[in-house]
Design a protein that fits this description.
Layout lengths: L1 E4 L2 E4 L42 E2 L3 H5 L10 H9 L7 H11 L4 E4 L6 H15 L9 E6 L3 H14 L7 E4 L5 H10 L1 E6 L1 H9 L10 E5 L1 H6 L3 H9 L6 E6 L4 H10 L4 E4 L10 E7 L5 H9 L7 E4 L3 H13 L4 E4 L5 H13 L4 E4 L14 E4 L6 H8 L9 E7 L4 H11 L5 E3 L4 H18 L7 H14 L11 H11 L37 H5 L8
Parallel strand pairs: 3-10, 4-9, 4-10, 5-7, 5-8, 6-7, 8-9, 11-16, 11-17, 12-14, 12-15, 13-14, 15-16
Antiparallel strand pairs: 1-2
Helix pairs in contact: 3-4, 4-5, 7-9, 14-15
Length: 550
């Protein structure tokens, strides 16, 4: 039996999955799996497991105290030491050894715990150990990011770690010209950080060629699924080589990610330093119950606190972000807004203004939340609670980064109580709540009674039997054509009709019902109904003429 790969059809017994690669150290180069070379037979004594997301052993992370123990290249160790880093974070200590071995990996860690360095450092170690020209029109390493801001942050991290090593790092995303990206792809790129949408455009135009890509990284996978990037990801993977290393990193692990992992990953190892969807312990979380009409006033009062020196305010809509930023400016608080309607230059200027300290507040939507990696953010304010509970984890992860402390304050209206319950269920904790409403109990009671009245007054849809019967009876009692006699005068009208036309059979008195009177009572042609349809039951029998006595 043979298997179809990017290098032709090979026998199953010569297929070597990623789990079977030998351990890697800096004293020898990576195996030839990264090049376009023939497949090698499987190693003796090791078999590939078909389980998805197998847990990684924890002993290695417990023994690792310094970056020098992880097997990274010497130039990278000098660079990160010069930047003041010596001890790896838990996600770095657990993930880096497996990535150096060539394993597919799923990394789950809270936002702000160093996930970028967890895959950037071992990838650069691989590029140093196997130097070669980048494929023209493509890249050796592809990192997919959900937002432009996050793509820029990841690219800056790669450039910082590889300073002086001669690697090319390029970003590809929307909002900028195609020409510069096209020229960079034509030359070949070592590390390409891209947003899925713009990269698919280059693939469709025949500009990009990903058949030589050796490593694929999906960062913030849950956000990409929320933004509907599943189809673009499948489109990108379709043009890539079958033999590649796949790395998934996320702060949450919904079922959709595991389904995608089954499709793309080969015997991955799962590294989770904390349970999925948990928040950083250093973040002090609280909820303020306040009416929607008073949220801007309460937000301005929060900025009067001296401890709130630099805050990110999250809104649910783009127009809401603009309105909140304008309100803060009117009350004397410098603020910048960032969302999808802003051009790339406007977004970068807003981030730079906030990063430099010229603005105390940055008002953003969830689309921009993943790319905001700024030190010194003291507070995160959820002006609107997110409609997806997982986004709460990513929002508040903008503070308390790199071991610092932070605070997260959520402004909750009565209509957002359901969202608050979802967040508490996801994070498995009860958030402390303070009621700032003018009359909380009265408002709750009024809203509850209004909701009850609305539910009682709501009528079932058309076609249901109850309302239809009620509608017929009410309309029959309120409106009657002028030519139709009343119920009390119907017997006299029938007698006059028999005297005037003795040859015409007399009509039975009509009940008070919807529609015009029976035409037979006026001597006209008998019809089955006013709309041409035959009535049913007693109404039909009543419309029949009586038999004349012989």
């Amino acid at each position: 039996m043979t298997r179809a790969t990017a290098y032709g059809r090979v026998k199953d017994d010569t297929y070597r999955p990623a789990a079977c690669f030998p351990n890697f150290s800096t004293k020898r180069q990576l195996p030839s799996r990264y090049g376009l070379c023939p497949l090698e037979p499987p190693l003796s004594g090791r078999t590939a497991s078909s389980s998805i997301g197998r847990k990684a052993p924890c002993e290695r992370a417990e023994l690792t105290q310094h970056f020098s123990d992880l097997g990274l290249a010497a130039p990278l160790l000098a660079t990160i030491k010069a930047q003041g880093y010596d001890t790896p974070t838990p996600i770095q200590a657990k993930a880096i050894p497996h990535i150096l071995e060539g394993r597919d990996l799923i990394g789950i860690a809270q936002t702000g715990t160093g996930k970028t360095a967890a895959f950037a450092l071992p990838i650069l170690t691989h590029l140093l150990a196997d130097r070669r020209p980048a494929p023209r029109g493509g890249c050796r390493v592809l990192v997919l990011s959900p937002t432009r801001e996050l793509a820029s942050q990841i690219a800056d991290s790669f450039r910082s770690y590889s300073a002086g090593l001669g690697f090319s790092v390029t970003t590809v995303f929307g909002g900028v010209s195609y020409s510069g990206q096209t020229r960079a792809l034509a030359r070949g790129i070592d590390v390409l950080v891209a947003a899925p949408g713009r990269l698919v455009d280059h693939l469709d135009q025949g500009v990009a060629d990903l058949r030589g890509t050796e490593i694929l990284v999906l960062d913030e996978v849950d956000q990409m699924l929320d933004l509907g990037f599943v189809k673009p990801i499948r489109r990108i993977v379709r043009d890539m080589a079958f033999r590649r290393q796949n790395l998934f990193f996320s702060a949450t692990m919904p079922k959709e990610i595991r389904s995608l992992a089954v499709e793309l990953l080969k015997d991955p190892v799962e590294v989770a330093v904390t349970p999925a969807a948990t928040t950083v312990e250093r973040i002090e979380q609280s909820v303020l119950l306040v009416e929607t009409s008073r949220k801007r006033t309460v937000l301005a009062d929060l900025f009067s606190q001296h401890t709130m020196t630099r805050a990110i305010v999250f809104t649910r809509t783009k127009h809401g972000a603009d309105r909140v930023a304008q309100h803060l400016e009117r009350v004397g608080i410098t603020a910048q807004a960032i969302h999808g309607n802003k051009s790339q230059n406007q977004r970068e200027r807003a981030l730079e203004t906030f990063r430099s300290g010229a603005a105390r507040a940055l008002v953003a939507t969830d689309v921009a939340a993943r790319g905001i990696d700024i030190d010194g953010v003291t507070h995160v304010v959820n002006f609107d609670l997110p409609d997806v509970a997982e986004r709460y984890v990513h929002r508040i992860g903008r503070t308390a980064r790199a071991g610092a402390d932070g605070a997260a304050i959520s402004l909750c209206d009565s209509s957002e109580r359901g969202m608050l319950a979802d967040i508490e269920k996801l994070t498995r904790q009860r958030l402390p709540t303070q009621d700032l409403r003018l009359d909380g109990a009265a408002e709750d009671a009024a809203q509850t009674s209004a909701a009850d009245r609305k539910a009682k007054a709501r009528k079932p849809g058309p076609g249901r039997r109850g309302p239809a019967v009620k509608r017929r009876s009410s309309q029959g009692n309120t409106a009657r054509p002028a030519s139709q006699p009343s119920q009390a005068s119907q017997p006299a009208a029938a007698a006059q009709t028999r005297q005037a036309a003795p040859s015409q059979p007399a009509a039975k008195p009509q009940p008070n019902r919807k529609g015009p009177p029976n035409p037979a009572a006026k001597g006209g042609k008998k019809r089955s109904g006013s709309d041409g349809r035959t009535p049913a039951g007693a109404s039909f029998m009543a419309s029949l003429p009586r038999k004349r006595a012989s």
